[in-house]
Design goal:
With 358 residues, this protein is of the alpha+beta class. It has 14 helices and 8 strands. The longest helix is centred in the N-terminal third of the chain and has 16 residues. The structure holds iron/sulfur cluster. Its cofactor is [4Fe-4S] cluster.
């Protein structure tokens, strides 16, 4: 394989076609770190407005570290994978407390920060600090699998090291940041998952999949297990024009996000009655028979959710002292001030419509 030719042709191609993205206009390690965290599992087009709002509100590590986590969640709302926001915030705190307020350029130190794994570390170190670390994400794996006709499945963690070895060998050590971005750009714009645009590719002369007519067969994948669907019942308790919202714990599923009292009830025979009992059990309130408003579906990272939302008119009782750690009675027009999780968001229009009709 002509490694020098691959590097040169990739770099030249990138200089010609690169997209002008906001995080490519800076060498600030903090801004690059934020962009890479947001870009994990999320499309560029979606990330741009979030990135711009985030940098405007939290322009540097110090401001982010001093911010309330709820404010960070609020700005992250809709981007999903909220643990990324929590880790970013916690890491900013560590940088201020232990690292003199500067994003570390030492790989060992950087990797100690929460949420920074191989990929983010390599991206920040190469793009912001010109250090020779190769990034390997889904785009990179797909391109490498095709160019080098690699049989290793791209979605099987034990195979990751093989892709890393090839990416390390391929890395342009003179311009590692540009090289990494170019390889990811190639995967995003040309060597796409379906119908790659091979005639526009700078590597047509090298690509083994193209030469052997095997492009549709690569990359290889192992069949993933389908995530099961959970059924949740949620009760929007209405008291004197306000709705009861509770906040999920700071660790675990959908950590720190707000929702209506809810519980998993796979196979519930009478969800309305179960909803009233759940509200009593969880928050200690009595309500009139719940009225079904809507059932929504939402796909989270590790599971799919079907959630039935009920309107529960308050009839008596106070929120139990040993109930939720955080709760609030919120006016319907103020619901969008809280960071809500995706299923709650989807159910809101039906709730607001029902309240308008009362
Ligand atoms: S020639 Fe086609 S399959 Fe090969 S790397 Fe380029 S776009 Fe991908």
């Amino acid at each position: 394989m002509d490694w020098d030719g691959l590097r040169r042709e990739l770099g030249d191609w990138y200089e010609r076609v690169r997209r002008d993205l906001p995080w490519r206009r800076t060498r600030d390690p903090y801004a690059i770190w934020v962009s890479e965290v947001m870009l994990q599992q999320t499309r560029v087009k979606t990330v741009i407005p979030y990135y711009e709002r985030f940098l405007e509100r939290f322009p540097d590590v110090a401001v982010l570290a001093g911010a309330d986590l709820q404010a960070v969640y609020k700005l992250w709302e809709g981007l999903g994978y909220y643990s990324r926001a929590r880790h970013l915030h916690a890491a900013a705190g560590m940088i201020m407390a232990q690292m003199g307020g500067r994003v570390p350029s030492d790989p060992q130190v950087l990797r100690r920060l929460p949420g920074i794994g191989d990929y983010i570390a390599a991206a920040v170190l190469s793009i912001a600090f010109d250090q020779p670390f190769a990034v390997v994400d889904g785009n990179v794996k797909r391109v490498l699998a095709r160019v080098f006709l690699m049989e290793t499945p791209v979605n099987h963690p034990p195979g990751h090291a093989r892709f890393q070895t090839v990416a390390d060998r391929l890395l342009d050590r003179e311009q590692p940041g540009r090289h990494n971005q170019a390889l990811m750009e190639l995967g995003a714009l040309v060597c796409t998952p379906k119908r790659p645009l091979c005639p526009q590719c700078p590597w047509t002369a090298h690509c083994r999949a193209l030469q052997s007519g095997a492009v549709p067969d690569f990359p290889r994948r192992v069949k993933p297990r389908r995530p099961g669907e959970q059924f949740w019942v949620a009760g929007a308790v209405l008291k004197k024009g306000r709705l009861l919202l509770t906040r999920r714990p700071d660790r675990g599923l959908l950590a720190g996000l707000w929702e209506f009292p809810c519980d998993r009830m796979d196979g519930a025979a009478d969800p309305a009655a179960d909803c009233a009992a759940m509200v009593r059990r969880q928050v200690g309130l009595h309500c009139a028979p719940p009225q079904h408003l809507v059932t929504v579906r939402h796909a989270y990272t590790h599971f799919k959710l079907r959630m039935a939302l009920y309107l529960c008119p308050w009839q008596g009782g106070r929120v139990r002292l040993d109930g939720p750690d955080h709760f609030d009675w919120v006016r319907p027009d103020q619901l969008d001030r809280l960071p809500l999780h995706g299923a709650v968001h989807k159910a809101l229009p039906a709730l607001l419509q029902a309240l308008r009709g009362q």
